[in-house]
């Protein structure tokens, strides 16, 4: 079950199956994708209910599916919706993130952990791997060697290890506060920064686009920029 609530400039999305550690079924993936794609707030905050962030794919659903590749594609589409959304997606990880839960976090723009967060890709122990875009995004977020070690070993990282590896950017007691901090920025600047950093074009093309976007933002906010000088 996916719960959605807009709170000012932040859309709150909660993975709400605490009895299953928020494991994701096909319907949950569709609902999560819809919740992200329909967000009109500058920032979206993704969290899990209960004592875990997300245990990943619901393995009962995986075992029962007649088309595992479609199950994987459904997860990929949801992760891509998170990565490509106009809204900035901040993922707050409290407790366990495993498998597909790690992959949904990898798709987010900002990953923030509590001291109780842990991360693992246990699929290798029973013959699976992260097929929701994890093999693409993991080595972008972590160094390739660390990514291989993490995925191949199945070992669990605590919050501080995840911070050192670059899997999260902060370890804080209240990740939602980071979402609210980011939401204080100008919405068009947030969208532009996300698009430019997420852009996978060649460096030259990206730099030209970056310069043009910077000029647009300067024109849009000249008064605020002038007022901020000397602060």
TrEMBL record:
Pfam families: ECH_1. Signal peptide: none annotated. Belongs to the enoyl-CoA hydratase/isomerase family. This is Enoyl-CoA hydratase/isomerase family protein.
């Amino acid at each position: 079950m996916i719960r959605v609530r807009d709170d000012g400039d932040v859309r709150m999305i909660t993975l709400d199956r605490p009895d299953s550690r928020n494991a994701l079924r096909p319907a949950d993936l569709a609902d999560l994708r819809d919740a992200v794609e329909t967000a009109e707030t500058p920032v979206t905050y993704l969290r899990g209910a209960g004592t875990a962030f997300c245990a990943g794919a619901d393995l009962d659903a995986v075992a029962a599916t007649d088309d595992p590749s479609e199950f994987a594609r459904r997860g990929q589409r949801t992760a891509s919706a998170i990565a490509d959304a106009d809204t900035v997606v901040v993922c707050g990880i409290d407790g366990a993130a495993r498998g597909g839960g790690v992959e949904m976090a990898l798709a987010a723009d900002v990953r923030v952990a509590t001291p109780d967060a842990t991360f693992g890709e246990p699929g290798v122990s029973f013959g699976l791997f992260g097929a929701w875009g994890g093999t693409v995004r993991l080595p972008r977020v972590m160094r390739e060697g660390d990514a291989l070690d993490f995925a191949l070993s199945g070992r669990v990282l605590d919050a501080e290890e995840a911070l050192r590896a670059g899997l999260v950017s902060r370890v804080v007691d209240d990740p939602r506060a980071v979402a609210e901090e980011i939401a204080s920025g100008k919405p068009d600047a947030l969208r532009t920064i996300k698009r430019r950093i997420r852009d996978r074009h060649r460096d030259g093309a990206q730099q030209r686009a970056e310069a043009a976007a910077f000029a647009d933002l300067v024109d849009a906010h000249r008064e605020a920029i002038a007022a901020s000088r000397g602060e």
